[in-house]
Design goal:
35% of the residues lie in helices and 26% in strands. The chain is of the alpha/beta class. The chain binds nickel (II) ion. The site of nickel (II) ion has 4 residues, from loops.
Length: 389
């Protein structure tokens, strides 16, 4: 490993903070990342990289080393959330209704940082590095799928990505071999009954009663139809119906989300949910419409790449940095990259002193994590190319 790597990262530590805060001040949500994309492009071009646009606001930059060899990619997601930021900080969002409340501003800063350092080292490594800046991670169908379709992984042999993680202490790294983040699915159910006077229920088909049965019965899918050793979640997020206490309404609508780590389990949950909705409605004389949207597939890390990334983490940041973590039920479209090439996705701790979770209006990150994450990404690239030359 290049002994000067740490120094090189220290030299750009201030720049990392400036990049991150600039993105933080100017958040843009899914596929509207025009300014973000422009700032990234200028920074990459200034480093002398060849940059192409793809997936609307996405970017792909290439850095060839001294001779041909393997090609390794780093990915950062670039979108913000439709959240009104709260708090006092000097770099608070200037865009009303949008905020970098998930840490993607930091992801961009550290991948730019890695690009900057690797550019300085390009005469010393064999192979090629590709930097992917991906729009719309937060909103399915997301930007990763489109990036892949438009050739983001052409010639790429391996990929790494990270997510800054508030529930891990600053500088700790968490990875899971195999499934690490969930397959997601969202549904809307509209129950159509027959409205009428609350005092004369015999003249109506009460969609509130049907919806209530559905909420309870659908909870039995996970407990009765899914292997208890395979995780699954079904949660209802909204239920709307009715206008006043003495009217039985015509309709009730419900929505919710399904999370699993296994696509067969996912299919079972979806099928059982549909059966319960259809048959329950029939039993009560109501009808229903179900809209079901599959979200991201499960994010499945390649075990040998997790081993490799763990070794590099210990070697670069020191022993004791890896933390045992459990898979999480959140979704992440880095999954699409991992379906195509070997790679690993990791959570990088930045939670010291941070009280608010991801997606909270007061979310923030410990910026001490920025140089450390940059160092790790840079080392992953160099070690991968060195090992596979
Ligand atoms: Ni995120």
């Amino acid at each position: 490993m290049n002994p000067e790597l740490k120094e090189k990262v220290q030299d750009i530590a201030q720049q990392l903070v400036e990049w991150r805060r600039d993105f933080h001040r100017h958040p843009e949500i899914a596929f509207q990342e025009q300014r973000t994309s422009q700032v990234l492009r200028l920074a990459l071009e200034e480093m002398g990289l060849e940059v192409e646009s793809l997936a609307k606001t996405g970017l792909r930059a290439k850095l060839p080393g001294k001779t041909d060899g393997r090609c390794v990619a780093l990915r950062a997601d670039i979108d913000a959330l439709p959240v009104q930021e709260q708090g006092e900080r000097e770099y608070i969002s200037q865009n009303p209704g949008a905020a970098h409340a998930c840490g993607h501003d930091g992801h961009m800063a550290v991948v730019l940082g890695a690009a900057k350092i690797l550019t300085q080292l390009k005469d010393f490594f064999v192979g090629e590095v590709v930097f992917l800046f991906q729009p719309s991670e937060e909103r399915p169908p997301g930007g990763a799928k489109l990036m892949v379709e438009e050739g983001a992984l052409q010639g790429v042999d391996a990929i790494f990505g990270l997510h800054f993680w508030q529930s891990l202490p600053t500088g700790k790294v968490g990875m899971v071999k195999g499934p690490m983040m969930a397959q997601t699915g969202d549904f809307n159910i509209t129950v159509q009954g027959k409205g009428g006077h609350g005092s004369m229920p015999q003249q109506t088909v009460d969609p509130i009663l049907v919806a209530s049965q559905l909420v309870v019965s659908i909870q039995s899918v996970v407990s009765r139809s899914v292997d208890p050793l395979k995780p699954a979640v079904v949660s209802f997020g909204t239920i709307h119906g009715g206008t006043i206490y003495n009217i039985i309404p015509e309709q009730v609508s419900l929505s919710g989300t399904i999370r699993t780590f296994d696509s067969d389990v996912h299919a079972t949950v979806e099928r059982r949910m549909r059966e319960i909705v259809e048959n329950t409605c029939q039993a009560f004389g109501a009808t229903a419409e179900i809209e079901y949207k599959r979200g991201y597939p499960a994010l499945v890390n390649h075990p040998e790449m997790v081993d490799f990334a763990s070794e590099v983490t210990a070697k670069t940041l020191g022993e004791g940095r890896i933390m045992e973590i459990d898979p999480v039920m959140g979704g992440e479209d880095f999954a699409y990259f991992l379906q195509k090439v070997p790679g690993a996705f990791m959570f990088f701790g930045m939670g010291d002193g941070m009280a608010y979770p991801h997606h909270h209006p007061r979310f923030d990150m410990d910026e001490k994590a920025l140089p450390e994450a940059t160092l790790l990404l840079t080392a992953l690239v160099l070690e991968y190319l060195d090992k596979n030359k």
